[in-house]
């Protein structure tokens, strides 16, 4: 359901997107370095899940309707920024000794799956991206409908992005392994992640106030 004539250009555009640092890359890399590969993998899975949801919305046209409503976008910026600020505040308040290590690892894996999921879903820039980017590679030369082509393009992007993020998890998780063995670092790992979430919140809210 993808026009093979546009596929090389689409793959090139995808590669460029992956190589440009963004909030997802920052979140996944920081998570993997601070909490290990397992938690980083769950964060990657959360990002991929949100990508699938947004692909479906773009394919059926719901996201296009939302993207054309300035008030809806402003509300999403505000809610998304507030959510990230709360996650940052919770991380800053959290101590490594609050829960046993095994329970903490399991809890963190679930927590960062949800956080990565909502980080994307509540970011209107990601929604607008799916609305504006995918249609550029929809071709009138094949029998598949616009919705079917956008679904196929979006799924290809999500699958490729997931495996790219796994590479980030492996590299960052390996580099962060020695840090995790450092007791002094473990005292401050939640503070580091709190700073990351507050940075992401400022980035999202800046679009609300600066346009």
From TrEMBL:
This is LysE family translocator. It is a multi-pass membrane protein. Keywords: Cell membrane, Membrane, Transmembrane, Transmembrane helix. The keyword Transmembrane applies. One of its GO terms (cellular component) is plasma membrane. GO terms for molecular function: amino acid transmembrane transporter activity. It comes from the Bacteria.
